[in-house]
Design brief:
Length: 380
């Protein structure tokens, strides 16, 4: 599909990313899925190539590349090659963004050098056992103490929670005047009272750890407040569009990859003496899916440009996330169907892509929440 949003330096970056992933990620996918997490050494190798924290300024070990098109390329290539891009999205699109936009100089000096070197990994602690997309329903609470807060609560479904060296935790910090006020607190691994539960057994994305986290009277020093006290909801609203755009980038690229796999498969697979792809039903099915993905790509590329210019709106990102992830699920499900019985076999790449696809409609905000955001925006 012809694209016009990239320039020569983006093309060079894309080639470098693909070579790296083919050499340092793809051969280890089965091993990482069996272990339930990506090897820590991978992040140091990725950082050596400039693929981790590249938006950070050079003084903190980054490259100063504040252009979301580079982020998009990294996620796209991971999907094309066939490795999970979620970890890159989490570290580069989410964790780093919070640190750069909200962190104090002291926090940046303390965390970013290790982060950009691939030696320090972060995570976001939003979802709770009884609270998903409804951030106002968060029950974790941090009570003010001299020089900090005392944090109690639990989080679940936390991506990279087991390996994370620090977690940006969303907790209530309001008093009687504003009991629902949220704040963002940096909780570092090893803090007294902070424990990591079991590594959750997921349907897909098995090469990436997902964890339960528990906070039992964890003292969080004042220096670990990220942003302003009580400003958590505003901070999240400012950062979530970028996160949702990252999910959409992965969804469209994964759709394209699934279609490519399937088109090649139906050319060779024969039924009733003919290639499966020669049947009109198969041709029409693939033609419709290809056209829908091409239309979504156009929508997505306009949003990537908007984000690069810091102009992406919350409702645009929400609608894009909902549309592309729902489309991705339809695409990969139909692609598996066109593989027939072989599509259900783990040895075929389409099976893993089908497993990995399902969660995209949930994380970053469920489809239903995304439509609600769009619906309220267009009626305001």
């Amino acid at each position: 599909m012809r694209r016009t949003i990239f320039e020569a330096e983006h093309d060079v970056f894309r080639e470098s990313v693909r070579r790296f992933l083919e050499a340092e990620a793809l051969p280890y996918q089965e091993e990482w899925e069996a272990q339930g997490q990506t090897a820590r050494s991978f992040w140091e190798k990725a950082a050596d190539h400039g693929f981790v924290g590249f938006e950070a300024p050079e003084c903190h070990g980054g490259l100063g590349l504040e252009d979301f098109r580079f982020n998009a390329i990294l996620s796209e290539e991971a999907m094309y090659v066939g490795v999970s891009s979620d970890s890159f999205q989490l570290q580069n699109d989410c964790v780093l963004s919070y640190l750069l936009h909200l962190g104090t100089d002291e926090q940046k000096n303390r965390l970013l050098p290790g982060f950009t070197a691939g030696k320090v990994l972060g995570a976001l602690g939003m979802t709770e056992p009884g609270t998903g997309s409804d951030l106002r329903g968060i029950q974790s609470r941090a009570e003010e103490r001299p020089d900090g807060w005392l944090l109690n609560g639990a989080k679940t479904f936390i991506t990279s929670g087991i390996q994370a060296d620090f977690v940006i935790v969303v907790a209530k910090t309001g008093g009687e005047r504003d009991p629902d006020a949220l704040s963002l607190l940096i909780v570092e691994d090893g803090a007294e009272g902070f424990s990591k539960g079991r590594k959750l057994d997921k349907i897909g994305h098995r090469g990436q750890d997902t964890a339960e986290l528990f906070f039992d009277d964890v003292f969080v020093p004042e220096s670990n407040l990220l942003g302003r006290v009580g400003g958590g909801l505003d901070h999240l609203r400012a950062e979530l569009p970028r996160e949702r755009l990252g999910v959409a980038v992965g969804a469209v690229a994964a759709s394209e990859a699934a279609l490519k796999l399937t088109i090649e498969y139906v050319k060779d697979r024969r039924a009733f003496g003919r290639p499966v792809g020669s049947f009109q039903a198969s041709r029409f099915e693939l033609a419709k899916l290809w056209t829908e993905v091409a239309a979504a790509r156009s929508y997505l590329d306009s949003a990537i440009v908007a984000q690069a210019g810091k102009e992406l709106g919350a409702e645009e990102a929400a609608g894009l996330k909902a549309h592309t992830t729902e489309l991705h699920w339809r695409v990969v499900d139909r692609c598996l169907q066109l593989h027939g019985g072989y599509g259900y076999m783990e040895e075929y790449d389409i099976a893993r892509r089908w497993r990995d696809a399902r969660v995209l409609r949930i994380y970053g905000g469920t489809t239903e929440i995304m439509w609600d955001i769009v619906g309220r925006a267009i009626q305001s």
